[in-house]
Amino acid sequence: MAPSKHALLGPSSSAMWLGCPPSARLTEHMPHETSVYAEEGTKAHYLCEQLVRRSVPAWMGLPAAPTQDLLDNPEYPTEMKNTAELYADFIHTLWVGFPHTPTVCVEQHVKMTRWVPECFGTCDCLLIGDGLLHVVDFKYGAGVPVSPVENTQMMLYALGAWQLFQSTDDIQTVRMTIVQPRIQSEPETWETSAESLLDWAENTLRPTAKLAWEGKGELNPGEKQCRWCRAKAQCRAWRDKYGPLADFMTQTPEARDPRLLTDEEVGMWLIAAQGIAEYVKCLEEYAQKQLQQGHAVPGWKLVEGRSTRRFTDQDAAFKAIEADGISEAMLYERSPISLTAAERLLGRKRFAEVCGNWVEKPKGKPTLAPESDNRPAYDAAEGFTPANE
Predict the structure, then answer these.
(1) Structural domain of residue 39, as residue ranges?
(2) What whole-number distance in Å separates Cα of residue 224 and Cα of residue 369?
(3) What value, to the nearest 5°, has the Cα angle with vertex 47 and ends 138 and 189?
(4) Phi and psi angles of residue 370, each rounded to the nearest 5 degrees, phi first
(5) pTM of the full structure
(6) Judgement on whether residues 210 and 244 belong to the same structural domain of the protein
(7) Angle between helix 243-250 and helix 263-273 axes, rounded to 10 deg
(8) pLDDT band, residue 389 (cuts 50/70/90)
(9) Does one domain contain both 148 and 207?
(10) For position 109, what pLDDT does the model report?
């Protein structure tokens, strides 16, 4: 399993320190807080690791360790087992796609110290052969889709693998795949040349990492670098990002044109407002934590929130209600489970076989998104068309 130690300039936080170099030192001594989702992800990664490790010998016609004990283990939810099997099947698909038997490394520790001070990480899976390095990263999260396209975490893993195997393999092509079964039906892959990857490492990664290591450079608030930054609630640059918006909202009617905004102005202020709700939420969470720890936050205090009544013993309460003349049928509601819940019960493959004929995915309704969004644009006359047309 992946080590619990964190590198100051680690692959998983690379979007943060590459986008905002001073953030690495600003957050250096802030605690890495865990969550039930992180712990769930760790368990899922371990299951994936074990399934692949035990399966590799069988792919080569050798005796393999049994996997049924893992799949029968009640410690792992059904959905977790299904996603782990999908991951292992995908690794096998990649393996058989090589012209010659590739080298397979599972949970491989790699170092990127040639370009980034003290940088290390653990790759979920590496496949190497025939001039190709394929890096695979498993994501169990069901909240935010992760793309491999110019994904700096994946690029750092690939550099670490290149550094590890350069003396034995002539790597020409690098592929990076993210497997996120709970969100994306198919793994997504991005390919680049080893030459391009090394050029990025020398001309972008190395100088930026030097700034980050030294705590230098300019604070640069933005969506990618701020998403997981532990300092964002206290970051003045993040607060100042919304300064123009605050100034605009507090101007008197005499100070600006009182008529309706133009479409250009609406677009400008929508861009300015991006992230403001998340910023306020982050401030609230920080202030609440400070107050719970006994620190004062001027102007704020903790009070008892709303609560909902509940039965202390629902079975006993229902028996009393039935005794008072209400039938049992009146006390329960019956409703069908969701499509997603049904898929979890059967597993994705079996679900498609059993009831795929009765499943459709209609076009989504038009929704607002910034121009940087990679989804196709909507045309009022023709509907959705590819973004490059």
Answers:
(1) 11-214
(2) 16
(3) 20
(4) -70, 160
(5) 0.70
(6) no
(7) 130
(8) very low
(9) yes
(10) 95
